[in-house]
């Protein structure tokens, strides 16, 4: 169940990097629909450039990109962040792969690893968790209060 709260991610700034325009647009739609402030980039190089003026709470980055891949990007971000004194949290997005790929992503500097196609609730929970605003699930104290709860499949335009 997903809370029908369109401000679930309100105030959370997210930088999304993916060289597949359709995947980039869908990820942006999912996060902005729930209130996140989203900036998108089609290349890792563009992402690094945007970090000069935009300080995201969370970065969502595809792994398999040309010119500079997601691993190289997140390592460059860590160097950049250390100089600026920022703590940058990042989510790797990639096609389903082996456990070694997930371990490699964590070793490169990603805090989380999600497989494409990413499920809406999984993405929302992961972004909220990294931004230190975890989503309460049914059965947890305080869950279900406020706006009504609904299955993810009922959110127009999203697949569960």
UniProtKB/TrEMBL annotation:
Where are the 4-aspartylphosphate residues found in this chain?
62
> What keywords appear on the UniProt entry?
Phosphoprotein
Q: Which residues cross the membrane?
A: none
- Record-linked Gene3D superfamilies: 3.40.50.2300
Residue intervals of the Response regulatory domain: 13-131
Q: Which PROSITE patterns match?
A: RESPONSE_REGULATORY
This protein is called CheY chemotaxis protein or a CheY-like REC (Receiver) domain
**Organism listed in the record:** Nitrosospira multiformis
């Amino acid at each position: 169940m997903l809370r029908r709260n369109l401000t679930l991610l309100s105030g959370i700034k997210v930088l999304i990097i993916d060289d597949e325009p359709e995947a980039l647009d869908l990820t942006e739609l999912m996060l902005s629909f729930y209130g996140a402030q989203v900036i998108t980039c089609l290349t890792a190089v563009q992402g690094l450039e945007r970090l000069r003026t935009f300080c995201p709470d969370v970065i969502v980055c595809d792994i398999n990109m040309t010119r500079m891949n997601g691993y190289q990007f997140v390592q460059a971000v860590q160097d950049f962040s250390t100089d600026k004194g920022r703590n940058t949290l990042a989510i790797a997005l990639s096609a389903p792969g082996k456990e070694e790929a997930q371990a490699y992503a964590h070793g490169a500097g990603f805090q989380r690893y999600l497989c494409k196609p990413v499920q809406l609730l999984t993405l929302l929970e992961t972004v909220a968790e990294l931004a230190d605003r975890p989503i309460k699930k049914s059965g947890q104290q305080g869950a279900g209060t406020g706006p009504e709860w609904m299955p993810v499949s009922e959110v127009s335009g999203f697949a569960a």
